UniProtKB/TrEMBL annotation:
Residues 4-116 form the HotDog ACOT-type domain. SUPFAM superfamilies: Thioesterase/thiol ester dehydrase-isomerase (SSF54637). The keyword Acetylation does not apply. InterPro entries: Cytosol_ACT (IPR040170), HOTDOG_ACOT (IPR033120), HotDog_dom_sf (IPR029069), Thioestr_dom (IPR006683). It comes from the Bacteria. This is Acyl-CoA thioesterase. Belongs to the acyl coenzyme A hydrolase family. Keywords: Hydrolase.
Length: 125
């Protein structure tokens, strides 16, 4: 399933401190960006606080380079009683905007939290 690539949830440029020994961006850095974007979408859907409880799947497809502009796209794939699965795709724009490359994708699960940080029901829409 392809996500709508018109409106990224997050757009960011990695910096020199995000580079690993191979000259590519650390996998943990992009994982963090994906979690931030998915958390925004999950929080909006839940109407409140959420927590990441699982990364069901994540695949690194291509390396991210230092000068890439990273766009993170996320949408709710499914909603359970207290949890939501958020599908994420990351596109790297390089060559001064001439090339777009899908670099990673994943499926993250979040649980909605109440004021005591316990799971609560997600409203069905």
């Amino acid at each position: 399933m392809a996500l709508d690539h018109r409106n990224p949830v997050l757009r960011v440029v990695p910096g020199p401190s995000d580079i690993n020994a191979n000259g590519h961006i650390f996998g943990g850095w992009i994982l963090s960006q994906m979690d931030i974007a998915a958390g925004i979408v999950a929080s909006r859907r839940a109407g409140g606080s959420v927590a990441t409880i699982a990364i069901e799947r994540m695949e690194f497809i291509a390396p991210i380079h230092l000068r890439d502009v990273i766009s993170v796209f996320a949408e709710v794939e499914r909603v359970g009683r207290t949890s939501m699965a958020i599908r994420i795709e990351v596109i790297a724009t390089r060559d001064r905007g001439a090339t777009d490359i899908k670099v990673t994708e994943g499926l993250f699960t979040f649980v909605a939290l109440d004021e005591q940080h316990r799971p609560r029901a997600v409203d069905i829409q």
